[in-house]
């Protein structure tokens, strides 16, 4: 590479930038935009939030609490508060602690606020439910995907209400932080969004299903240095939260809190109950699902999420070329000019592209998960309406798919028919997402100076 040849470097840089934005943006509708107060989704979302708050209060008042994990959570937290730092000794009724350290801090606060009692904990989780729903409604309002009336689907799940206020699962806390992180990403607050995302991971590891699409979005919207610092901030959160355990018993902490090889009990599986148990628990079945997961992610990334950049490989190549140029010109006299042109090559992603990529990436993980327990429905329920309206299916079929998924999750215990039906519904939704034409991912406005804050 000729550092002194400014003309050659410039042409190489231009080719790299052009390869990232190969497809021209589609023509935009020039009609006058609807103002915030004229958007019918806003008053409807506010009314929906109030109505759901009333429903949650009625559920807490009149529906009996179901004892599952709360007592175990409190036992594990009590051991932590008494000074135990060996994860192998933090146990409850359901077994040893298997969540990262963020779970302990948050549920320690819950124990302090509720004295470990169920009824005040239900009130606390009712508030958590409303906060989470408010965040989700804000995401839906800021993305022009669903019609206003379809927002009511977000409040129609019997199972999700039960997960939040009758079971008090930590999945609820993790997903609230995840949705908050997604809202921050929509507003280009990438560093802060990664920190909140890392907090969500510290509560439950399922949030990592969002990690592959998140990394791709970061590479699209930030330069390599920005991606590095954002990831470093997220890693620092994990280190700081786990520091008391990493210092004292690091092996026990890492092996328990970040165990990706756990085998769940076949009886509780909602999705693959029709698979014979010997096959279900086998390593071969796990490898098959992992391979399917990675292949589907690669296909969607190449043919859908990066289609307008010429495919995944072309996009990654352009980012590598850009990174090489950045380091090469850092020590040359052309570095000021390069810095200006490099920053201009980073374009703003649309809110819809961010949400679609994140939700679809997570849904692929759901489809390929070996075992989905009942509380795992909260991992993707709130994305279902968005995903359904991202397909080109008619509205009636979208509603049938939504109701079908909800029915499968409310059959207890699951059986061969309900689990097979759920898998079929998931595959139909996934096919609809695959067959839908990808939209242009970049906004037409100028980059904001706050995009990396």
TrEMBL record:
Source lineage: Eukaryota, Viridiplantae, Streptophyta, Embryophyta, Tracheophyta
Intracellular or extracellular location(s): Endoplasmic reticulum membrane
Protein name: dolichyl-P-Man:Man5GlcNAc2-PP-dolichol alpha-1,3-mannosyltransferase
Gene: LOC107492492
Keywords associated with the record: Endoplasmic reticulum, Glycosyltransferase, Membrane, Transferase, Transmembrane, Transmembrane helix
Pathway note: Protein modification; protein glycosylation
GO molecular function ontology, one term from the record: dol-P-Man:Man(5)GlcNAc(2)-PP-Dol alpha-1,3-mannosyltransferase activity
Entry EC no(s): 2.4.1.258
InterPro entries: Glycosyltransferase_ALG3
Reaction catalyzed: an alpha-D-Man-(1->2)-alpha-D-Man-(1->2)-alpha-D-Man-(1->3)-[alpha-D-Man-(1->6)]-beta-D-Man-(1->4)-beta-D-GlcNAc-(1->4)-alpha-D-GlcNAc-diphospho-di-trans,poly-cis-dolichol + a di-trans,poly-cis-dolichyl beta-D-mannosyl phosphate = an alpha-D-Man-(1->2)-alpha-D-Man-(1->2)-alpha-D-Man-(1->3)-[alpha-D-Man-(1->3)-alpha-D-Man-(1->6)]-beta-D-Man-(1->4)-beta-D-GlcNAc-(1->4)-alpha-D-GlcNAc-diphospho-di-trans,poly-cis-dolichol + a di-trans,poly-cis-dolichyl phosphate + H(+)
Renumbered residue ranges of the record's region Disordered: 1-33
Positions with biased composition (Polar residues): 12-22
Domain of life: Eukaryota
A Pfam cross-reference name: ALG3
Transmembrane segments: 42-65, 97-116, 123-141, 161-185, 192-212, 224-243, 250-268, 280-300, 354-372, 393-412, 418-436
Gene Ontology CC annotation, any one: endoplasmic reticulum membrane
Protein's membrane topology: Multi-pass membrane protein
């Amino acid at each position: 590479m000729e550092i002194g040849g400014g003309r050659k470097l410039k042409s190489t840089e231009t080719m790299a930038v052009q390869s990232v934005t190969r497809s021209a943006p589609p023509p935009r509708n020039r009609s006058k935009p609807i103002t915030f107060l004229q958007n019918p989704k806003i008053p409807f979302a506010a009314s929906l939030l109030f109505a759901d708050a009333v429903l949650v209060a009625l559920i807490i008042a009149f529906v009996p609490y179901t004892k599952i994990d709360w007592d175990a959570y409190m036992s594990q937290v009590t051991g932590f508060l008494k000074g135990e730092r060996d994860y192998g000794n933090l146990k409850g009724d359901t077994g040893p602690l298997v969540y990262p350290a963020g779970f302990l801090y948050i549920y320690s606060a819950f124990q302090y606020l509720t004295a470990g009692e169920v009824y005040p904990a239900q009130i606390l989780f009712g508030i958590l439910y409303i906060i989470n729903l408010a965040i989700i409604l804000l995401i839906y309002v800021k993305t022009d995907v669903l019609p206003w009336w379809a927002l009511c689907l977000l409040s129609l799940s019997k199972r999700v209400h039960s997960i939040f206020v009758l079971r008090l699962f930590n999945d609820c806390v993790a997903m609230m932080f995840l949705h908050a992180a997604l809202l921050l990403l929509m507003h280009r607050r990438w560093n802060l969004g990664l920190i909140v995302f890392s907090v969500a991971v510290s509560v439950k590891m399922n949030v990592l299903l969002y990690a592959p699409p998140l990394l791709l979005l970061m590479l699209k919207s930030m330069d390599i240095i920005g991606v590095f610092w954002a990831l470093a901030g997220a890693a620092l959160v994990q280190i700081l939260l786990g520091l008391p355990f990493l210092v004292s018993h690091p092996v026990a902490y890492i092996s328990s809190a970040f165990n990706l090889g756990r085998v769940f009990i076949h009886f509780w599986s909602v999705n693959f109950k029709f698979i014979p148990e010997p096959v279900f628990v086998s390593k071969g079945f796990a490898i098959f699902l992992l391979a399917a997961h990675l292949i589907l992610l690669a296909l969607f990334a190449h043919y859908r999420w990066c289609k307008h950049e010429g495919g995944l490989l072309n996009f990654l190549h352009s980012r590598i070329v850009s990174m090489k140029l950045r380091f090469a010109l850092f020590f040359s006299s052309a570095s000021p000019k390069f810095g200006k042109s490099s920053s201009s090559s980073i374009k703003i992603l649309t809110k819809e592209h961010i949400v679609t990529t994140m939700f679809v990436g997570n849904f692929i993980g759901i489809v390929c998960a070996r075992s989905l327990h009942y509380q795992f429905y909260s991992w993707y329920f709130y994305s279902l309406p968005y995903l359904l309206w991202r397909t080109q299916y008619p509205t009636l079929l979208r509603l049938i798919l939504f109701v079908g998924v909800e029915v499968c999750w409310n059959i207890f215990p699951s059986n061969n028919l309900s689990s097979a039906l759920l898998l079929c519904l998931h595959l139909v939704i996934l096919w609809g997402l695959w067959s839908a034409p990808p939209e242009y991912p970049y906004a037409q406005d100028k980059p904001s100076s706050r995009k990396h804050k």
